[in-house]
What does this fold into?
Amino acid sequence: ATGMVTIDPGYKNTGSCESAITFLDGEKGILRYRGYSIEELAEKADFLEVAYLLIFGELPNKAQLEKFYDDITEESQVDEEMKKILDGFPKSAHPMGVLSSLTSALVAFNPSTVDVSSDEAMYNSIVRILGKFPVLVAWTMRKKMGLPLDYGDDNLGYVENIHKMMFKKPTKDYVKNPIVIDALDKLLILHADHEQNCSTSTVRITGSSHAGLFVSLAAGVSALWGPLHGGANQAVLEMLEAIKEDGGDTKKYMAKAKDKNDPFRLMGFGHRVYKNFDPRAKIIKKAADQVLGDLGVEDPILDIAKGLEKEALEDQYFVERKLYPNVDFYSGIIYRAMGIPVDMFTVMFALGRLPGWIAQWREMRLRKEPIGRPRQIYIGENHRPFVPLDKR
Ligand code: SDX
It folds into this structure.
């Protein structure tokens, strides 16, 4: 007898919480952060402003934004001992595994961040991770490229400083070259939150046991790594590369994607909630054209992507399943044009999603949500007596 329990695989029809952070309408392709449309925020706000909005609920005024960035900058040093942990990884380690481990290891050097019983303590753990996570992101990239680590330049803006820690471009370049920073800022905003997706639900349920913010985020990084979730942006580029190697034969990959016996899926397509165009994909597709144009980058992969999209949008199998390009379909093309290695794409997704994870974790703690503990329907063996070893 299963009593009151009903099973809902993947929680497709289960609401896990009430939240005031992000609203999305899958049918109409609407996405809003704290009531502001993603289209407006991507155009008119910058990433740190959106981080403040998601976490604290309001767009910051000038003084609030300046104090926020000063407090984050104060906390942007990472303990030198952490480099020993980074050194322990082989260069071949996937950056998402390195990032998740380093995020978890941070607690050892910031033990006070586990207790968030006061507003100040919670605020302090939030500015600490907003200051240190970008350093860890840059370190994972520099490690895999065998390049020296760097703490960046506090005179730069938040996203500029991240770019500098990753690429170590001369500081003067950032004044001349806003294209890349503007595109990166927009991409990070578009990834910043997405209500109760897999990795955010992971952050919430981990934090619901009152495990600290940092380890809850490390759990979110791990969940995001999967190719069905954030890992899709890397898988999209690998798929497009394979199609290019195959002479641009998109039909073969479309057939594979529709073949029930073939586990291959068209990466960057489909979504649990959006049964229409993912509004983020629309903006990123436009940005891809713009950035590659501005950078003078001719990338045949972009043409293959557009061809594949066109085919899929006209294909019966995809149309009847309402499969459209999602946030991951075009983002990797821009990261590649920026010189970001393909196995760093999901790390960039994690960087963008950081404020959303923090906002959702904070809301869960402030609302004193109970520890997450679902039930099950037992389908195993009935009661049976133990069998001694010599009788088996
Ligand atoms: C992200 O949740 C979020 O908000 C996530 C995210 C965020 O911002 O946090 O938006 C970010 O993760 C975007 C999604 C990135 N993943 C991919 O691009 C991987 C490819 N997409 C699929 O694996 C899939 O579409 C999911 C995982 C995104 C959604 O899966 P669902 O909702 O569980 O849907 P499903 O697997 O039940 O598929 C429904 C049908 C199936 O066919 P039938 O069994 O009904 O015949 O559609 C088919 C699937 O086989 N299908 C696909 C497909 N996606 C679904 N067939 C081919 N190619 C695909 N991409």
Observations:
- Residues 10, 194, 197, 228-230, 232, 257, 265-272, 321, 323, 326-328 surround s-citryldethia Coenzyme A (CB under 6 Å).
- The beta strands are 22-25, 30-33, 36-37.
- The first strand starts at residue 22 and ends at 25.
- The mean pLDDT is 95.
